[in-house]
């Protein structure tokens, strides 16, 4: 879900700000780091899944049907 993705990105931003502050205890820093890694992996998975669903619209035929092709991200 897009909203979940946006919430995860916002949480990652909050984690980065907290860790950049430098006033967290080591234990709290480690917990935030672990949460950040987990969120990053989840966001990466969501993006990969979204990329697989994207199609390019090539044209529309005489009957109004879309002619599409899978969108492939160059590596």
Shape: rod-shaped
What class would the helix/strand composition place it in? Answer: alpha+beta
| Rg computed from alpha carbons, rounded to a whole number of angstroms | 19 Å
* Count of alpha/pi helices: 2
Which band does the percent of strand residues land in?
A: 5-15%
Mean pLDDT reading: 86
Largest sheet entry: 2 strands, antiparallel
Order of strands, widest sheet:
1-2
Q: Give the ordered list of helices and strands.
A: HHEE
Polypeptide structure, described:
Helix 1 packs antiparallel against helix 2 (26-53). This protein has 75 residues and is of the alpha+beta class. Strands 1-2 form a two-stranded antiparallel ribbon. It is rod-shaped and about 65 Å long. Helices cover 64% and strands 15% of the residues. A hairpin with a 5-residue loop joins strand 1 and strand 2 (66-70). It has helices at 2-21, 26-53; strands at 55-60, 66-70. The model has no long low-confidence stretch (mean pLDDT 86).
List keywords for this structure.
2 helices; two-stranded antiparallel sheet; alpha+beta; single chain; 75 residues; 2 strands
Question: Could you give the topology of this structure?
Answer:
Layout: H1 2-21, H2 26-53, E1 55-60, E2 66-70
Antiparallel strand pairs: 1-2
Task: Give a brief outline of the structure.
The protein is an alpha+beta fold.
């Amino acid at each position: 879900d897009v909203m979940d993705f946006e919430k995860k990105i916002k949480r990652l931003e909050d984690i980065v700000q907290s860790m950049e502050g430098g006033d967290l205890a080591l234990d709290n820093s480690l917990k935030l780091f672990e949460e950040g890694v987990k969120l990053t992996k989840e966001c990466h998975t969501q993006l990969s899944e979204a990329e697989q669903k994207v199609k390019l619209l090539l044209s529309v035929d005489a009957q109004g049907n879309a002619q599409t092709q899978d969108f492939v991200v160059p590596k």
